[in-house]
Amino acid sequence: MIDLKKVREDIAGYKLICQKKGKHFDIDAILALDDKRKALQLEIDQTKAQQKQLAAQKDYEGAKNLKIQIQELESQHTQVDTELKSWLLKMPNTALHPEVPEGKDDSENVVVQNFWTIPQFDFQPLDHVELMKKHDMIDIERGVKLGGARSYFLKGDGMLLEQAVLQYTLKKIVERGFIPMQVPNIVNPECLQGTGYFPGGEEDAYRMERDDQRLIGTSEIPVTAYHMNEILNEDDLPKKYCGYSACYRREAGTYGKDTAGLYRVHQFQKVEQVVVLPADEKMSEQYYRQILQNSMDILADLELPHRLLQLCSGDLAIGKYNSHDLECRMPSRNAYGETHSVTAFLDFQARRLNLKYRDKDGKIQYCYTMNNTAIATPRVLIAIIENNQTADGKIRIPKVLQAYMGKEVIG
What we know:
The protein contains 13 helices and 18 strands. The protein has helices spanning 4-9, 11-20, 27-56, 60-88, 128-134, 140-147, 156-175, 189-194, 220-224, 281-301, 348-353, 379-387, 399-405, and strands at residues 110-115, 138-139, 153-154, 179-182, 186-187, 207-208, 213-215, 231-233, 239-248, 267-277, 306-310, 322-330, 335-346, 356-358, 364-366, 368-377, 395-396, 409-410. Strand 6 (207-208) and strand 7 form a beta hairpin. The longest helix is centred in the N-terminal third of the chain and has 30 residues, at 27-56. The radius of gyration is 26 Å and the shape is elongated. The N and C termini lie far apart (53 Å).
């Protein structure tokens, strides 16, 4: 949960952050609730001390009456504390990167730079579904028959191409010093609350009611929560992890949107970069640029036209301090589609996860965290397949993937 001490240091500044993110809270009422909690705790402590004194004086009747009073005060404190924590879990990060532009929603995100040349076809290009069906790489109809809408089978070269992309990416990220991790796909809800997905994202998560557990929507969740409730040593930081997993999202709220093809599906594969580091904004900036560059290098290796977007304030989730998206050009959409998202949180996630470290002076502090998609499939397959199609309906395989596929062309 957020640090109310930081809020109190600059109440007007925090109100402005909430306003820029489009979040509306009665900050003064929440601070008053915190004051009430503190006052009740002080009264409880003083009454307990008084009770102890009466018991020492053998005034058992007086001590008994104070015990009843303490129980009433503790009941009030629990009620106030529960209400306060409920608000704190919904409130945004106490900091916002100075480069974040102000805007109401994703329509006001800023294109920073375009990379790679958009291919110009001298023929009528096909979309990825047509191309994949042509080469027996996909079966959507049987996927829907077995799993409902947004389900699919990847077959033959479709499955092999996906694995080639994942394995190439994993190898590249590991070579850059990230520790690979195969993670649990089923986690406790505390992990989603700790990483900032709950409250607010419950409708998009698959729930296993019998055990009150959830399927992950990204390996960011278990990897960031890996050191939950731990105190690390500063000498062991930063920790650079690379999570590899299947991911599951209900896509709640997207009924009727992007229903065709592989753009928005319920199950996908992902390689995720996660960094846990000390509370050092300069170091945070350095590693933020590093993990962003890793993803940009992968897209360049895949020879995909893409662009970098700076997210505006209104498109930032509550925990995000700074965030950029990478979007790949997808000819069938005649547009760019999001394939990567990099985010810095400062201590927002660590406070919720109780993730701390002991600095060189022996002081206990909260860690900083950040993450970025290294690759996510099958969405990136749309860009690979559509941008590499030929006039005779074949699909060129990017050079870096040819060794994994054992050929240069599909078809």
